[in-house]
Amino acid sequence: MSSGSDDKPGLLGCRLRAARETAFVGREEEVAVFNAALYGGGCSVLYVHGPGGIGKSALLRRFAHEAAVAGRPVSMVDGRMLEPAASEAEPVLRDADAVLLVDDFERIQGLEGWLRERFLPRVPVGALVVIAGRNPPDMRWQADPGWAGALEVLPLRDLRAGDARTLLDSCGVPAESREPLLAFAGGHPLALLLGAAVAVKDGGAGGRWRPNQDVVATLLDELVGESPSAAHRRALEICAHAYMTTEDLLRAVLPEEAGTLFRWLRRLPFVESSSRGLFPHDVVRGVLEADLRWRDPEGYAVMHDRIHAHLAERVRTASDADVPGAVAALLHLHRDSGAPADFRGCHDEDEFQEEVLREEDIATLLRVVTAAEGAASAACAAFWAERQPEAFRLYRRAETGEPVAFSAWLRLAELDEEELAADPVVAMAWAHARATTPLRAGEHLAVSRVWALPPYRGNSPVMEVIQWRVIGNCLRSERLAWSYIEIRHPNQAWVERLRRHYGMRDISGQPQLGEVFAHDWRAVPAQAWLERMSRLLVAGPAARPGAATAKLAVLSQAEFAEAVRKALRQLSRPDALAVSPLTRTRLIAERAGQNPATALGDLLRQAIDDLRADPRSVKFHRALSATFLRGAPTQELAAEGLGLPFTTYRRHLTAGVERVCADLWHRELYGTGVPVHLRRTALPP
Questions:
Q1: Which of 22, 356, 382, 553 is most buried, judged by most C-beta within 10 A?
Q2: Which residues form the Orc1-like AAA ATPase domain (predicted)?
Q3: Which residues pair with 271 in a beta bridge?
């Protein structure tokens, strides 16, 4: 369709054009590239590509306006109308001043080879052709040396933040609705315009603005369209929910066709790739999430649980260098349940580099900590760097190599007077643990220390990477009793997140030390901690008040053993087992879904039965079975039934009870596995 036919004053087309020009914002760089080509200083072919709704058609209309102002004849071809395309394109073959604009090129993508090899070489030098479509150009354009100076490729991105605000202003969006609308739409023009229409119509909604289902459905049609199959749609929904999508993630959720679906995803115009996998445009991510949660909440929960389980396992098994990225992927699943709203990991993943501390970095450590916190903090950092150099990580700006922060994860099982005197934060943590629930044999506590240069404190990308490292340490540490996180220059949003979302207690008592947050990982283990956050996301904010995870009992070894002895004597009484402190221990928490009293009874019976696996323990098994499983009325009758002298029976029974106590205590500390009496360790006589 040729430009100019509907521009006469008095026609509706003139009015439409004026309104569109008023709503056009930004794109200064793209217009500058077009004008350079228009006035003979640039390329002959300009290829614009970007996802649906990103503003390609609006940009072509601006190009048409710029060409008309320059006095050059303009022709426009719409890929949705194939029949008139040839005649509309012919002027550019005859006139060196002609400008040809081709929109919706993805509809006629099959003509790309013909266009490149047959049509465009016939265009006179001086003429200008602009192609706009969702898909990037075939690599053969850029691989051909002949096109090196004649073709310019322009990926069209979101509007900048200032331009997005200007667009909302031009639409008359109430001030109180702008922030939630921008949080949803970002800089995506179509999403902004559709959201603006809803916000203007429902001006009283204020900060509660949400995209309604009409907006979501329209964006899905325009941005995503129809999927080839139900499996393809599920792959899209997984890609929208996950931080980054890899083929192994797809395989964990959709075992069949994972490879085929991954290859399909990576070719979609609204899906981008990074070193960690695929991720969709933010608006596509948002509308796919909103649609699935509304349309199929049960399916959404199932998908979330599968992705969550896969990513939680990745955190546990990742190499040390991959821990921050693995934690970022896991925490991204919690972004709508109180996690950071400005989660930026997808796009800034390589902005900062994490390194282990080397001996030659000690001088840098002292310089950075002195600049960040002063000489006293530098002395403290130097003290720990000498004692636990493996605890330290250095963070550099990737672009310049500039060191900007250090972190330390101090593992402490015992402290001497010198260590307590050297670090007041460690001394506070140690005193708190001793006064609350002290460490048990083999356990340790950890103290996280962070030193960052002033420009990088608070809610900064490097602090986010450090946060991922700290959470990874918590989730991966064996025998971790307490963790303590000091925030010297607290950002209020981060403080609230630690307190409300991550369930950590503020134990700060000395203002000069900043805020110190503690968590007892025996009372709320890593798995329960993750499940709580997962439930908050799936159930939504309404479930938050009742979503607190019940804390486990943290018993000393003596208290634990006494509870086991009592539970063995009450094994035939479920009512008595129900009130045992053992029902609130890790042992029973690991048996999720069972009635606690039933789970405890099953556990005790299994512990007795396990003794049969070791020939040296068979006599203990017989004594315990006769006493607690078969329920002999008296110990004398139990001994008589076994054909044993009473003193021998009592010795076997006592040793068997001690063996069960040791086995269960080992499982309480280390988790389920091979009973301790079957390990290659010293056995009691």
A1: 553
A2: 24-76
A3: 280
